[in-house]
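Notebook B, p. 112. Complex prediction, attempt 2.
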Amino acid sequence: MSVNYMARPWESRLFRRCRRAWDLGARERQDYEPIERAQVFDFGEAMHDALDVYYFPGMWEWGRAIVRPLALAGFEKSMRRDRDAYTQTGELSTEQIQDWEQHLELGTAILTRYFDWANEVDRFTPIQVASQFDITLPDPTNPDTGLITREGRPLQYRVRIDLVVIDDHELYWLVEHRVVPDQPWLDLEALRLDEQALTRSWAWQLSFLAKLEGTIHNELRTAAPGAGDSAMEVRAVPGAGGVMTQRSTESFRRTHIPRTELEIERQGIAVALEMQDMTDPSLRIYPNPAWQHCSRCAYRPPCLAMTQGIDERPILETSYRKRVDVDFQLGRLGSVWGFVPEIHRVAEYRAPGAEQ
Ligand code: SF4
């Protein structure tokens, strides 16, 4: 057990969804993960890896014609890494191989079209990509002190952001990339309420002692190319922090949402209150079954055993293990930052081919 109690946004989401799943999977709880990987590849993660390369600050001044193939190579590398990891624990079926190949093709096509589109709408300079950092949680009732558990462990939160950019007016924006299914776009209010964007904004401000103007929601729809890709729709909607602007085609949508200081601060208070709940010694653990999340829950086998009054330990011992990966995987593009006031970069990984 480390000195600090460290939580992550995925653990908060799990805590809210189902305390039993959270208790089995959170690093500060039982810390189990399935031995067998649930999927051959993570398409969304591979697309993020490509965008990390495309927006890598150290290559922003390079011609986009040089960076595009590097970004596509980043996508393919990520897909291959996932597939190789999967084959260490199981054989691929013919359907799985076909699915992998189709997604490799789909991702390459979407990214190629995206780069054309982004050329038109990227009006900023990236300053940070795929950064991970830890913050100490301020006490909402006394922001000058940090929260601690009943046992005296300081509460910390580990956050990873997609991208931070600076615009032509020297204002900072936090960018969220989203690879979304081929369905109607989410309502603007869903973006406004996006808890992940707000949590990351709050944590970034706290860690880097700078103010964000707002969040940029950069969505890529996993659709085949359509006639609507060439027609750009633009709209502007007044909001609490200023005018929200949106540019979209059939496959891509980018929304700028100015955020008020209060809105970001309130998210920080919500995170702190939730972490106090999480670390309360009298916390009760119970399942929250709903097929919407149980259908994709990694802990369904032990949960079913518990529900039926069967000993779950043999399942956990044979099909699960204590987590072996660290939060930041070596070989991925990005950086890890220490805690303020001594902000320092402890690791940075170069984009494929960046040394050329
Ligand atoms: S299967 Fe459902 S109820 Fe059981 S742990 Fe998972 S999310 Fe919770």
